[in-house]
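Weekly puzzle thread! Below is a chain. First person to post its structure in token form gets bragging rights.
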Amino acid sequence: MRYDTWDYHSRASLKHRYLTVATPKVGCTTIKRTLHALEGLPPADPWWAVHDEGEELRLEHYSAAEQQQLLTSRDITRFAFVRNPYDRLLSAWKSKILRHDSSYVPLAAEIRAACGYPDDTVVAFGDFVRYVTTHEHPDAHWERQVVILACDRIAYDVVGRFENFAADFRTILLRLGVTEDVLALAGEVTNPTPDFPLAVAYDTELANVVYDYYREDFERFGYDADSWFTPR
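Winning reply:
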């Protein structure tokens, strides 16, 4: 399964009756931290270690029979969150390129070389977009959400929106019967990036590139092609 959908990105529990796939840049850290607390796992320190912990909650950890139960049983809540692709891709650039994430230094260097940048300069968002959408640089932070969520394999009961994350996640957690302390943790914002209007980063040409690349996400999850210049 590409992008470790059954492993790294998934969290599931027969005890608390849920299955989710947490998509990068769509509240994934908050989702994992909250579910780990629900399962009684210790808090991750530093916070980003949460992504490498919780192996026992990953779908791949379960037997074939248990996976089938988690994937098909009517009393399992299967949920996921989605985000406007324009906004998600901009967040990925801010998090991985603008902040000089050490894991993405080689990619930034590739883009500089391809675009004729001087060394150690900031890679413009538009050049980042054009590069990762036309070169083989598979990465879960900008892969299509339909791929990571394995929508062809998992029938989700609830698909929340990042744009309404706090309220939607609270509704899901209440359905799971969580305690107040877990609800409070779900309201904490983890790993935010600076916010500014999408129209600051996009123009019509760049928006068309992104729309074409993420067309299935836009269509499946109901995001408008013109949402890059409309109020959020």
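Puzzle host: Confirmed. Bonus trivia for everyone else. The CA atoms of residues 160 and 169 lie 7 Å apart.
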